[in-house]
Specification:
It is built from six helices and four strands, in the order αααββαααββ. By secondary structure, it is mainly α. Strands 1-2 form a two-stranded antiparallel ribbon. Keywords: DNA-binding, Transcription, Transcription regulation. Pfam families: GntR (PF00392). This is GntR family transcriptional regulator. InterPro entries: Bact_HTH_transcr_reg, Tscrpt_reg_HTH_GntR, WH-like_DNA-bd_sf, WH_DNA-bd_sf.
Length: 162
């Protein structure tokens, strides 16, 4: 994988690895590359190292970033629009939380795990968790009590199955 003892900087090694995956087609145009938190977990690197690797690929116009959604293969959204199946991270988190609510993992009127717990579990930033919870609040799955947290809404407040 990555050789932390090499004379080649780790970010350059990671960029080379991702570049090879793009050129081989393993990462296709429009496909999301791993997020910074995913790279941190997978390769045991600092977030700034992941960011530098992504920056190198952006400089080569191999990837582009859509704020709040991710980094995708291609020189721009017009040249390589992202795949429709690639939901923004906050929507992926929200969809998973809904499935857990439906499955009864969290009962109505009981609290969701803390932001910190969800950030660690999903490997995402605080803003991503907040956007996911805000979406669930808009849809009626949860409600938030100031300085107390977010709770699963009573079943009669859940959106109708569609």
């Amino acid at each position: 994988m990555l050789d932390h003892g090499s004379s080649t900087p780790v970010y350059a090694q990671l960029a080379a690895l991702l570049r090879a995956q793009i050129k081989s087609g393993e990462l296709a145009p429009g496909q999301a590359i791993p997020s910074e938190p995913e790279m941190v977990r997978q390769y045991g690197i600092a977030r700034t190292t992941a960011r530098r690797a992504i920056g190198a690929l952006k400089d080569e116009q191999l990837v582009y970033t859509l704020p709040g959604e991710g980094t995708f293969v291609g020189s721009s959204p017009e040249a390589a629009p992202r795949e429709p199946a690639n939901l923004p991270p906050y929507r992926r988190v929200a969809a998973d939380l809904v499935e857990r609510i439906r499955a009864g993992r969290w009962q109505p009127e009981r609290p969701l795990p803390s932001e910190q717990h969800l950030m660690q579990e999903y490997g995402v930033a605080k803003e991503t968790v907040r956007r996911a919870v805000a979406l669930l609040r808009e849809q009626g799955w949860v409600y938030t009590v100031a300085r107390r947290g977010s709770y699963v809404s009573p079943v009669d407040h859940w959106p109708a199955e569609g």
